[in-house]
Amino acid sequence: MDAIQSKFADDGFLAELRSGMLRFARLQLRDDSLAEDLVQDALISAMAGAKGFAGRAALNTWVLAILRNKIADAIRQRNRSINISSLASEDESLDRAFEELFRTNAHWKPEVRPRDWGDPEEALRQQQFWAAFEACLELLPENTARIFMMREFLEFDTEEICRELGINPGNCHVILHRARNRLRGCLEQGWFAQGGQPC
């Protein structure tokens, strides 16, 4: 048995890998049963293709890339449409939140201006940062999170997101901007304000 096959035969390694994959898939899809199916499918594909693993990346990274492609394919195939009225209500609540951040001249209010995050490269290396990021991502409205993840995690371009979800590019850009600002605010409160520790 080669090294890759023996890793897949290790129950501890497989359980940890599967747990991380499920967390990633659930965040992307917000559908537990579909996430389970895609994780299972990705693991089967990885085990079947283990001989083709060249070792240019870590095994976990390679398996996660397989899962990422399966998630992107599932989103493309689902042809799910977002209820435009639900986007409108999300937009209204986010608009009110944004109005509180800026002066009438469109400059940040001093008390809510983004703070210095220190060395973000170091924070990104810390595994706990991603736990805090995932918690913040869970706080986003569902449709906003879906659009953000399609763009930033699954690397869909704006045109593809708009086509899949039946929205226009202007809406897409506004939703992405709001998602990034909401995540920034959440991370400032729950990570950077705590000295790099989740609250």
Keywords:
mainly alpha; globular; 199 residues; Rna Polymerase Sigma Factor, Chain: A
Topology (SSEs and partners):
Elements: H1 3-9, H2 11-29, H3 32-48, H4 59-78, H5 84-99, H6 120-125, H7 127-139, H8 142-152, H9 158-165, H10 169-190
- Number of DSSP strand runs: 0
Specify the biggest β-sheet.
none
**Category by helix and strand content:** mainly alpha
CATH topology group of the largest domain: Arc Repressor Mutant, subunit A
What's the total helix number?
Answer: 10
- Mean pLDDT score: 79
CA radius of gyration = 19 Å
Number of domains: 2
Helix content: 55-70%
What is the CATH domain class of the largest domain?
Answer: Mainly Alpha
CATH homologous superfamily assignment of the largest domain: Winged helix-like DNA-binding domain superfamily/Winged helix DNA-binding domain
Low-confidence stretches: none
Return the CATH architecture of the largest domain. Answer: Orthogonal Bundle
Beta-strand percentage? Answer: under 5%
SSE topology string = HHHHHHHHHH
Shape: globular
- The quaternary state of the protein chains shown equals single chain
Could you characterize what this model shows?
The protein is mostly helical. The chain folds into two domains: 3-78, Orthogonal Bundle (Rna Polymerase Sigma Factor, Chain: A); 84-194, Arc Repressor Mutant, subunit A. Helices cover 70% and strands 0% of the residues. It has ten helices and no strands. It has helices spanning 3-9, 11-29, 32-48, 59-78, 84-99, 120-125, 127-139, 142-152, 158-165, 169-190. The longest helix is centred in the C-terminal third of the chain and has 22 residues, at 169-190. The N and C termini lie far apart (44 Å).
